[in-house]
Amino acid sequence: MKFIKEWKQFLAEANFISDYNFDLDYDEEGNVILYHISPTPDIETFDPDIAAGSAQNYTTREYITWNRPRVFFFTKLGQEDTGIGKIPGENYYKIKISPEKLYPVTKDPAQLSSPQEREKYMVDNIPEYAVRYEQAEKCDSTSNDYKRWHICAKTPDSDGLAWEKVRGVPSLLLDNPKFHRQKPNTYELVAQLAEERYGTIGFIYPQDKGDDDTLIAVIWRPIETQKLDNYYSEET
């Protein structure tokens, strides 16, 4: 039991963003500083549930792909939204958060969005899928010399994935159209696993795909904030 406790503590302290050369603001204690612009004055704690209930138009677009309540932050003073420019609002805030609490979701260093993790979710949550999984063969490149046309050979890092023949052709069970609507939302799956395994409470990612100069962050747990006099200066 002591080993398990120490192992969980080690996982909770994983600092994934240190592996990347992100240009972030830090305080003297090593916390990441994030910034928020709001039309609401005198906020002391950002509550994602409250924020979701009063989301602006530019924020509601983000909920199309993932509906978990969350608060959005910029990572640099003076940063603007890459789509609309300056965010409306005259109230500026900053939060300080341990880098261990942020997970770089698009980099996904812990492979939390891997097919294996998605399949585990399906097995744990979809009874019919679990039955099919138990009946299906599993990719095993160590024990089998798959032909190039075989799905296990065509799919990188496929070991452990279930496959079955569809009209005589090997296909991954995950790709079965029958279960398409029951697959987990990738962002939600990664958020659940990242918090459960590593204690993270937010994502950091580029607003423009592949451009780390446009990094933003989202936090899905309540977090205390401080008022900022001027977002468009270098004073923090």
Characterise this structure:
The chain is an alpha+beta fold and 236 residues long. The chain has 2 domains: 2-109 and 191-228, no CATH class; 115-182, no CATH class. It contains 7 helices and 13 strands. It has helices at 2-12, 48-53, 57-60, 115-125, 127-135, 151-154, 186-198; strands spanning 25-26, 32-38, 45-46, 71-74, 91-97, 102-104, 137-138, 162-166, 169-172, 202-206, 215-219, 223-224, 226-228. A 4-stranded antiparallel beta sheet has the order 1-2-5-13, with no helix packed on it. Strands 4-11-10-6 form a 4-stranded mixed beta sheet. Helix 4 (115-125) crosses helix 5. The chain starts with a helix and ends in an 8-residue tail after the last strand. Residues 1-7 have low confidence and may be disordered.
Please describe the structure with a list of short key phrases separated by commas or semicolons.
alpha+beta; four-stranded mixed β-sheet; 236 residues; 2 domains; disordered N terminus; 22% strand
Order of helices and strands: HEEEHHEEEHHEHEEHEEEE
Number of helices: 7
Q: Specify the helix fraction band.
A: 10-25%
Compute the gyration radius: what is it? 21 Å
- Give the number of DSSP strands: 13
Category from helices, strands and their pairing: alpha+beta
Give a topology summary:
Blueprint: H1 2-12, E1 25-26, E2 32-38, E3 45-46, H2 48-53, H3 57-60, E4 71-74, E5 91-97, E6 102-104, H4 115-125, H5 127-135, E7 137-138, H6 151-154, E8 162-166, E9 169-172, H7 186-198, E10 202-206, E11 215-219, E12 223-224, E13 226-228
Parallel strand pairs: 6-10
Antiparallel strand pairs: 1-2, 2-5, 3-12, 4-11, 5-13, 7-8, 8-9, 10-11
